[in-house]
Automatic annotation (TrEMBL):
Protein name (record): ABC-type dipeptide/oligopeptide/nickel transport system permease subunit
Organism: Microlunatus parietis
Pfam hit, one: OppC_N
Origin superkingdom: Bacteria
Localisation per UniProt entry: Cell membrane
Keyword field contains Cell membrane: yes
Keywords annotated in UniProt: Cell membrane, Membrane, Peptide transport, Protein transport, Transmembrane, Transmembrane helix, Transport
Gene3D superfamilies registered for this protein in UniProt: MetI-like
PANTHER family: OLIGOPEPTIDE TRANSPORT SYSTEM PERMEASE PROTEIN AMID, OLIGOPEPTIDE TRANSPORT SYSTEM PERMEASE PROTEIN APPC
Similarity annotation: Belongs to the binding-protein-dependent transport system permease family. OppBC subfamily.
Lineage, highest ranks first: Bacteria, Bacillati, Actinomycetota, Actinomycetes, Propionibacteriales
Cellular component, GO annotation: plasma membrane
CDD domains registered for this protein in UniProt: TM_PBP2
Length: 283
């Protein structure tokens, strides 16, 4: 039985132990984020006035408390939830924009393509991080605003990739056959072109997730993250830097999980890139 390209890619991916382990770790992170209210021993706003700024293990606080007596372990868990919510939401937003613009530009062509790609070039020339800062300033400091800001600021590279894939695939024999049989442009784009471009799109999306996590943390460091008291890794890291000498645990734990999460998603992206590389079977 002939294997599909996706099955071939999965077989190559699971032979990459680092990527497979990272994928499992990312899956666990998602489960933990969804289960944060059940796992966290305290709500992220609860304060223990008798145990302010204590170290790990003191007063029943696994990772200690901050200057307000809030449990660091609980806030790290809820911070994970914030980071993944923003990252996945922003990447879905960017992907939807990229698919619409890339498919229209690549398949329709003509003046529509020129107009769309001119707009894409303008966005590409504008620093995406600065654009996100402007949007958050205008929209306000909320998870929804961060999702929109980061997503709208990060679709350009994916749109260019989708357009390039469409330009390559629309000349293939199966697309010409579908066109000769009377299939509509929408059907051809969604049923014949998009599935065959899924590999590169998945790769860029997988790299976009850690980039969005980093962008959310960076905005929080600038004071443009979610409104307190909602936990954010960037906000916790900023607080930890200010208290580094007196309470190093405030920096250590959120920074460590932040770094591990970025590494795990990046390694998944590396694994997907190698898996969808057709030459992977020849190595």
């Amino acid at each position: 039985m002939t294997k599909s390209p996706l099955r071939h890619a999965w077989d190559r991916f699971r032979r990459n132990k680092l990527a497979l382990g990272s994928l499992i770790f990312c899956g666990l992170l998602i489960i933990v984020a969804l289960s944060a209210p059940l796992i966290a021993p305290f709500h992220y706003t609860d304060t223990d006035f008798d145990n302010k700024l204590v170290g790990p293990g003191v007063g029943g606080h696994l990772l200690g408390t901050d200057a307000l007596g809030r449990d660091v372990f609980s806030r790290v868990l809820y911070g994970l939830r914030t980071a993944l919510s923003v990252a996945f939401g922003a990447e879905v937003t960017a992907l939807v924009l990229a698919l619409i613009i890339g498919l229209l530009a690549g398949y329709v062509g003509g003046r529509l393509e020129q107009g769309l790609m001119a707009g894409t070039d303008v966005m590409y020339a504008f620093p995406s991080y600065l654009f996100a800062v402007v949007l958050v300033t205008v929209l306000g400091r909320s998870i929804f605003a961060l999702i929109l800001a980061i997503g709208i600021a990060s679709w350009v590279t994916q749109a260019r990739l989708v357009r390039a894939q469409v330009l390559t695939l629309k000349q293939r024999e199966y697309v010409e056959a579908a066109r000769s049989m009377g299939a509509s442009g929408f059907t051809i784009a969604v049923r014949y072109i998009l599935p065959n471009a899924i590999g590169p799109i998945l790769v860029t999306t997988s790299f976009g997730i850690p980039a969005a996590i980093g962008a959310e943390a960076g905005l929080a460091l600038l004071g443009l993250g979610v409104e307190p008291p909602t936990p954010s890794w960037g906000g916790m890291i900023s607080e930890g830097v200010r208290s580094l000498l007196s309470a190093p645990h405030l920096l250590l734990f959120p920074a460590a999980l932040f770094a591990l999460t970025l590494l795990a998603f990046t390694w998944v992206g590396d694994g997907l890139r190698d898996a969808f590389d057709a030459s992977g079977d020849q190595r």
